[in-house]
């Protein structure tokens, strides 16, 4: 049964259909809320929407998807419907997202960036367990490459090597 009812849709500030539009809108919303844009790597999104007055968001994709975040080595499962309440630097009451720990799939309920900003992002389960990772592990690859290009100085038209 869907958590997104017709009543919720009628209150929505924005409802979008189609993968391309929903991909763009979800990344824009994450950026607007100061969250890493690679946090929700969904595919074949059919519908997405937000009720701005409450912060309720939903994303519906054709089927469940698993994604491995290479930088932290974690496998995450995104169900056909992902819902949450979103606010600046926080995602609360998250549904449809599970992380694999050892042999178990554990649901996530909250995601938040540290305040004051430390470059860390914390993932919490409904039981109160949590893990903290570098927020940069959840940025889009394109953004990371642009950031690296800015940090690496050019020397006489060639790219310089920065030693650590």
Summary of the model, kept short:
By secondary structure, this protein is an alpha+beta fold. The chain has helices at 6-11, 19-32, 141-151; strands at residues 14-17, 45-51, 56-61, 65-69, 74-87, 90-101, 104-107, 110-113, 120-124, 130-134, 154-155, 158-159.
How would you portray this structure in words?
The protein has helices spanning 6-11, 19-32, 141-151, and strands at residues 14-17, 45-51, 56-61, 65-69, 74-87, 90-101, 104-107, 110-113, 120-124, 130-134, 154-155, 158-159. It has 164 residues and is α+β, with helices and mostly antiparallel strands. Strands 1, 2, 3, 4, 5, 6, 7, 8, 9 and 10 form a ten-stranded antiparallel β-sheet that branches. Strands 11-12 form a two-stranded antiparallel sheet. A hairpin with a 4-residue loop joins β2 (45-51) and β3 (56-61). The radius of gyration is 17 Å and the shape is globular. The termini are far apart. 22% of the residues are buried. The model is unreliable at 146-150 (pLDDT under 50).
Shape: globular
Structural class: alpha+beta
Number of helices: 3
Helical residue percent band: 10-25%
Q: What proportion of the residues form beta strands (DSSP E)?
A: 35-45%
Low-confidence stretches: 146-150
Return the string of H and E elements: HEHEEEEEEEEEHEE
Mean pLDDT: 87
Radius of gyration: 17 Å
Question: Could you give the distance between the termini?
Answer: 53 Å
Q: Kindly state the number of beta strands.
A: 12
Q: What kind of oligomer do you see? A: single chain
* Major sheet details: 10 strands, antiparallel
């Amino acid at each position: 049964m869907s958590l997104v009812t017709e009543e919720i849709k009628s209150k929505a500030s924005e409802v979008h259909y189609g993968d391309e539009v929903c991909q763009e809108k979800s990344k824009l919303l994450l950026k607007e809320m100061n969250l890493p844009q690679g946090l929700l790597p969904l595919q074949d999104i059919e519908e997405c929407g937000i009720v701005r007055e409450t912060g309720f968001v939903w994303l519906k994709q054709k089927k469940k998807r698993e994604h491995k975040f290479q930088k932290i080595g974690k496998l995450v499962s995104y169900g056909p419907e992902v819902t949450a309440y979103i606010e600046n630097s926080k995602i609360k009451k998250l549904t449809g997202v599970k992380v694999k720990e050892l042999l178990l799939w554990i649901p996530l309920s909250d995601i938040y960036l540290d305040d004051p900003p430390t470059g860390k992002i914390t993932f919490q389960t409904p039981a109160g367990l949590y893990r903290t990772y570098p927020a940069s592990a959840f940025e889009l690859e394109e953004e990371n490459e642009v950031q690296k290009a800015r940090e690496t100085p050019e020397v006489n038209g060639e790219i310089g090597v920065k030693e650590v």
